[in-house]
Amino acid sequence: IGNTVLHVLVLQPNKTFACHMYSLILSYDRNKEGPGSLELIPNNEGLTPFKLAGVEGNTVMFQYLMQKRKQNLWSFGPLTTVLYDITEIDSWAEDQSFLELIVSTKKREARQILDLTPVKELVSLKWNMYGRPYFCFLALFYILYMACFTMCCVYRPLKPRTGNRTSSRDNTVYVQKMLQESYVAYEDELRLVGELITVIGAVVILVIEIPDILRVGAAKYFGQTILGGPFHIIVITYACMILVTMVMRLTSTTGEVVPMSFALVLGWCNVMYFARGFQMLGPFTIMIQKMIFGDLMRFCWLMAVVILGFASAFYIIFQTENPENLGQFYNYPMSLFTTFELFLTIIDGPANYDVDLPFMYSVVYFAFAIIATLLMLNLLIAMMGDTHWRVAHEQDELWRAQVVATTVMLERKLPRCLWPRSGICGREFGLGDRWYLRIEDRVDPNKHKMMRYTEAFKAQDRDNYDKGSEKLENNGDTLCKKDLSALSLSRSTSRTSSHRGWEILRRNT
Fold first, then answer.
1. What's the distance, CA 119 to chain centroid?
2. By Cβ atoms counted within 10 A, which residue in 16, 179, 186, 287 is the most buried?
3. Which of 65, 85, 110 is the last residue of a domain?
C-alpha cells in the first residue's frame, strides 16, 4: 500500500504537497535500505517511483529525490564536492534503463530531465569518453562497408546479349551471367571476397537488430523518432534485400538488379543515421524523419489522387496519336511516370511542335499546372516550413536525446571490457555497494551577497510604506494634508535609497 501511494504522489499536480507526503510515508518505512525499501519496489510496468518521475517528466519530484540521494563529500570555500547516487540512472547494469525510458517517452517534459544534475554530467561523461569515439569508428566502418558493396554491384557479372531484339524500343545489350560463369577469372575472386563481406555484414545487422525488436516491441522500436525508428526499418530492409540478392545469384535467377538497387539506395540513406553524432547535423535527421513520415505521407495521398486523374486524362488524349512522335504517353504506366515528373516540375510539358497536338491537351495541361505547381507544391513547402520551425525550437533538446539514445545503444551492444562502468563505487567512501558520480559545484559568493542586498532593499521599502500607513490612520482630517506631504517625502526618500541600491547591484552584475 505504501509503495502504491508513493507512485500516486509522483503523478500529483501539486508538487510541493507530493514531496512532503512522500517524505512522511518514507519516515514510516522500516526497510529504508536494501531491496525491501518502498522506493525500490516497482509497479506493474516495472517502474520504481524514481523512474516513474522521469517518465512522467516530473522535474520537481526528480530533483527532490536526487537531493535525498546525494552525499556532500567536502567543502572548501566556494567549492563543494558532491556524490550523486546513480544506481537507477546508470544504464550499465539496468535491464530497463532510466535514460532509455526518458528518451522513449512521448512527453516533452521528460526530456528536460536530461539537462538536470547529475543526468547531464553522466551522459556527458559517457559520450565524451566512450560514446563519441566508438560511434565515429562505427560510422567510418559502415561507410567502408557500403563502398565495398557498391563496388561489388558496379562490377557484377554481366555478358553481352546474344538473342535478337523483339521490339524497336528494346535497348538491352548486356545480360546477367549464370552462377557457373560468374566466378572464373581473378577479378571474379576479388569480387567474391567483397560479396562475402557484404553478406556477413547483412547477417550481423539482423542478429543485432532482431533481439532489440523482441525486447522493446516493434511498435515502440520503429515508432520512436529519437531512437532512430525509421533508420531501423531501413537497415533491416537493406539486410533482407542483400539476402534476397544472394539467393537469386545462387539460383541463377534473372532480375537481381531489383533487390540490388533497393539495397544500394537504402544502405546509403542509412548513412544519415550517423549524423546524430554531430550537434550540427543531428537535429536535421529529426527534421527529415518528421517531414517524411508526417508531412510527406499526408501529402502523398493528395498527390496520388491528382496524378492518377491527370495521367488517365493524358493517356486518353494521346491514345489515338502516333507514339513515335509523342512517346511520353505511349502506354499507361509511362503516362503515370511522366505526370509524376510534370507534378514535381522535373521536366517541361512534353510537346512536339512538328505535329498537331490535340486541343484537349492544352486545356488539361493548363488545369494541371495550376493545381499541381501553384497550389499543391506551395502547400507542401508551407507544411515543411512549419515542421522545420517547430523542430528548430527544440533542436538542442532533441540532439541531447539523440546522444542519450545512441549512448545507451552502444553501451548495450559493446562488450563490457570496452565500456567500463562510469562513476565511483560507494565502498571507497563507506557508502555500500551503490555507485556514485562525483560532481564539483562552485558557489559564487557575489551572487548570494547580491541576493541579500536585494532582500534588504525590499524590506526597507516595506517598512517605510508601513510607517506612512500608520500615520494616515492615527491623524485626523485637519492634519491630513500635512501628513500626506510627510508621507510623500518619506516614500521619495525610500525610492532614492532603493534606487541607489539597485544601481549598485547593476554595476556589480
1. 18
2. 287
3. 110
